[in-house]
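Researcher: Re-running this chain for the archive, since the previous output was lost when a drive failed. Same request as before.
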Amino acid sequence: MSAPTVPHPDDDLFRTLVTQSRRGIIVTDPDEIILFANPAAEQITGYKAEELIGSTPEILKSGQTSAEVYRDLKRALDADQIWHGEFVNRRRNGELYLEARTISAIRDETGAVRYYVSISEDLAERQRYERRIEHLATFDPLTGLANRAAFMRALSAELELARRDRQELVLLNVDLDDFGAVNDRLGADHSDRVLTEMGARLRDTLRHVDLVARLSGDNFAVLLGKSAPGTEPDCRDIADRLLGSIARPFTIGDSAVELTASVGIAGYPADAGSADELLGCARSATHDAKAHGGNRACRFDIGMAERNSELRRLREELTHVAERGELVLHFQPQVSLHSGHIVGVEALVRWSHPERGLMLPAAFIPLAEECGSIVAIDAWVLREACRQMSAWREAGLPPIRMAVNFSARQFRQRALREMVAEALAAQDADPRCLEIEITEGAMMQDMTAAIRITAQLKELGVRLSLDDFGTGYSSLAYLSRFPIDVVKIDQSFVRDIVTNPANAAIVQATIAMSQKLGKLVIAEGVETEEQLQYLRRSECDEVQGFLFSPAVPADEVARMLREGARLDVAGLREAQARETILLVDDEPSILSALRRTLRREGYDILVAGSAEEGFSVLAKQPVQVIVSDQRMPGMSGTEFLSRVKILYPRTVRMVLSGYSEISAVTDAINRGAIYRFLSKPWDDEQLKDEIRGALREWRELYGRGAA
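Model: Regenerated structure tokens:
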């Protein structure tokens, strides 16, 4: 066939085109004398252009190309055809290389050959490029692990072999817990470093026969090798080792990041018969592990698939749930510990599901956060809360605060200030009565942004509340950096405040620091009289919880406000005029004997049959002196009094004990937990003297009337 005419080698346009080409181009005259070689040809052959020009292509021959290749080349060119083929050539440094060449003849108007043009490509470079493409198609570029496509191909192949050989396979699905929050806090670059380190830890923890892959984001999968027994204990052991490896802090920059993961376990043929089904089962087990708090491994069972199917349906139904009119608000009263009156309510959303009935937030809010519906739900709650504020005002009810929760996702919305302003304006609601609750986790994800956003909200005149304080990674010192009006003590600290010295200390420190910074303090989850009394004596400002009222519909709140429902705090404020002694012993006869001994001394005598009852009494009423038996079931006297020392340091503590227990008592005395040791059986007059001495000690230290 006839080849097209091209510009002369000296033509500037020709030079521009060929010098920029990534393929080697060599032009020869009819006698095969090289006239031109472009930079790519220099790079491929190792020769400079000036070394090639004037020589012939013989300079590149290695002797390794078969004679048939050259004969085929000559036949093609004589027939005026374009020849394609491969040469084994030799570079200037003597290295052999495989080169693909396309050679054609350029003829003049008479048909005579003027030039031969050779276009070449280094096949080794192409092979490297192809291997790179194959690597990218097979491996995750961030972690170097197999990617999803490669893993699923390998899993399908292993399933076929397992089916043929009647063997078992075990698959683990590994998912980091709450990695989205970490990503928001650290940024993409640092999060990628965490994932890279995660991949390295998985490789180091697993065996060479196990296949590990990064499927997506922070989701990984492990196919256990055939040398691993497919029994539950072995799978659990591997899963536990993975969890332990992930739990070690990740060092990113100058800070340490602590992470946990959830692992789902599924097996062939017990759980599934195909690759997709097996991975789906393992993921169902992972979701179950997350639902139980994360940082654990769960084995798949059929119930998980049903539960996850149910969760998927709920996620779908949450879309446009507000527009369908299925949301309702209930309100939990917040009560002042100074007046006893209702001073505010917290708006809590419920889902009036057409089939399931009224659903509490715990059943759907986490799902809404996962699927993104939480933003629309938060916006509806804000609008409805403002509407209810106006409705109560128009009904002539006393003004109270309305606390509305914002999710972390809502808090990060750019138009948050405008949304709040529009909701207030639409209902002509007083911004001073609106309190926006933000969790400390949301506040601390991005300190700079949080300071800016809270300042914008304060410009509207609303109050800001820091919810769930103490449960995350914040510090009391951060309180001074935000325009926060209210600090809410999480119910996890309130739950055992009268028996757990650590939580009691946290609550007392939070109250003291917050009030010094001018913040109001609310304790949530108050359910017992003992908790209430302790919080009142710790000078907490307000409480909310089932002890006063659960969350109720708006009409019930209106009734409470009209009738003046209140907490009786008059009794809480009454100081004990008489000196009070608490006797703790598990034997009723001992308690009776002690009371008889002290009954004419003019003391108020309180009794408890166990350490647990003792904590309850101490929470309800101020006590000056405690006398406790040492040998009691559940908790010894020295352990009880050691906790009392932390919870109620303004008490004088004594223990009744036999001499056989003297070592434990001596240790407690040395630690300051016990003021005196009284032996059994006791002398009545000596006991009275010791009690009087203890009260003198108390008066000298604290004075009458101190709680």
